[in-house]
Each structure stands twice: as C-alpha cells, then as structure tokens.
Amino acid sequence: MLKSRDRKAWQTLLIVLIISFSSAFAQQPDPPGQVKNPAEAVNQAYLFAHMIHKDYGRLYYTVSLDGLHWKSLNNQQRVFNDYKGHPDICKGHDGRYYIVGNQSDASLQINIWVSSDLITWEKFGSYTPDLKTTPDYGYALQRLGAPKLYYDESTKQYILTWHTPHKEGSKEDPERYWASQRTLYVLSKDLKTFSDHPTRLFDWDMGTIDVFIRKVGNQYFAILKDETYPTLYWPTGKTIRIARAASLTGPYSEPSAPISPNFREAPMLIPSPDNKIWYVYYEQYPGVSYGLSIADNLNGPWYQASGYTFFSDWDKYSMPKSVRHGCMITISRDEYNKLVEHFGIEK
C-alpha cells in the first residue's frame, strides 16, 4: 500500500501526464463567423484579386468559400494581361465590376476597366489628377500609388483614393519619402467625370498609404496603413489602423490603435460567411506572409488568428505561398462556380 507521500507523488505525475496528453491533441477554436451548412451562408464565396511575388503589379485570382481557406485559379497564371497596378475591384452603380490601377507610381494616369462577370475585362476610361491643384497641398510630388475605388450606395457616388508623397527620400533618410505620403481623393457619379481637384482625405499630419473606405451601418471606416517608421516614439508605425467618420469624406477620427503587428501593409476587409464577423487580412512585406485579424465589429477589439505557417494542425486560415497584395470582395456562389469553371482551380 502506497504511503501518503508516494500517493501524492503519483497523483501529481498522473495529472501532469493527463495535461501533457491533452495538450498534444488539443485543438484551438476555429475563427468565428463560419456556418455549418454552406447554403445558409449570407456571404457564399470570396475573390482575392492580387499580384504575385515574381510578377509584381499583374492580375491573379484566388478564391475561397469560407473566407479562410484560399485556392489559386488559372494554374496561378495571369487572368488579364492588360492590367497593371495594385488590384482593387468594386461593384458599381450598374451592378458591374470596376477595377483600377496605374502603370507605376511615376504614372499619374489611373486606368479603369469594367466587367460583368469578373472574367472578361474591357477598358472603361481613365483619370489623370492634377496634383498641384489640391488645396493646401500644392507641393505634392508628381507621383501616385495604389489607387482604390469604392461605390457608396448612400450618396450614389464613387470615391477614388490614392497616396502621394511631398518629400523626396535621400540616402541618409530614405524613410522621409514614405513618411510624407498623404491620401488624396476625388468623387465621381459615373467614373467618366470627376471632382474639380483632388482633396486630402485626412486633416491630421501622418503618413498614410493603402487607404480604402467602407460603410457599415451609419458609419464610414477608413482602413489604412500608418506609414511612419516605427520607433520608441511612434510605436504604431507600419501597422494597420482604422479611422471613422459620419460622412464619406470625413472629417475622420484619429486612427485607432493598431490591429496588426508592425511592418504590415495592404489591408483587405471581408465579412464572414454568416455576416456577423469581420476578417482583415494584411501582408507582412516584402511578400513574407499574410496575417489575419478578427473582430465582431470594426470598432474592435481585434485579435490575430494563427495561419500561413503551412502546418495544417496549426493554421486557421491558408493561402498560396506566393500571393502579394490586392483586394478581397464577396461574390455569389454562381460567380464562384463560373470562375472555377472558366479558369480551373488548384487541386
């Protein structure tokens, strides 16, 4: 018969073994927002229009049925050879899809294509802003990056945003160029005629890039990258943050606390299949990995899911290895099926 001291030792050992055994087979909870029956999903499918690391600025497609697990289309080849830019797609006033891009940051011409099925794209028009006419920003450099397009159903107009710098970088201070980026916009009813001049979107003095707008409920949200370099005195640098406003063009609030780690960019926002949760993806550049932050409303709080490790028992979301930034949109199951039928999908 075991003595009391030995019995306690065995009990302790048994507890340790049980905990160790359980931990080895423990499964952390899946991200919220999913549905058991796909037919019950409010958002039935998703399209990620993006570039890839070895073919920067060109158009590729990846799709998902749950907003978490993504597969490449078209054998990871271009889906539209004429496109050049940082892909951004929105559904417009006429139910068709519009995509915007430009040849490079040195090219001020923003090109616009249109498609009824996301398969065949036709040139729709272009817009070339006169950056020198922006009020209180006549010293802008003649450069333009990552145009983004959003159609606001409430006001029946598009907002076209992009970032523009006002200081050249130097060998001693290359970050000066990026910290000087400011977000500008114009409005349009039809993407044929635009505002008289570009206007600064934010009245606060902070570097911002990769900005896009979404309306949720009665509030507008600007999802942005804080483009100041991170330091002890600017710990939010190179993170994804969110500003809010009561109207499309602001004034916008000071940005929120970061919803991503440092050195993340190109955010993308999608609602979950049950339409109750928000997923924000962002790239750890240059093309290192993707992160995912999750919240039940855009005011937060946010947490970061585990993924992109390529260990299936750890990943809560997955993507092809070589994808770089672009945009994500919801699509119907019928649109998903047609894309898969036309381009073919990764096995």
TrEMBL record:
Keyword flag Protein transport: no
Q: Give the matching CDD domains.
A: GH43_Bt3655-like
Superkingdom as given in the UniProt entry: Bacteria
Keywords of this entry: Hydrolase, Signal
Q: Which InterPro entries does this UniProt record tie to the protein?
A: Glyco_hydro_beta-prop_sf (IPR023296)
The species this protein belongs to is: Mucilaginibacter limnophilus
What Gene Ontology molecular function terms does this protein carry? hydrolase activity
What's the protein here called?
Answer: Glycosyl hydrolase family 43
Where in the sequence is the signal peptide annotated?
A: 1-26
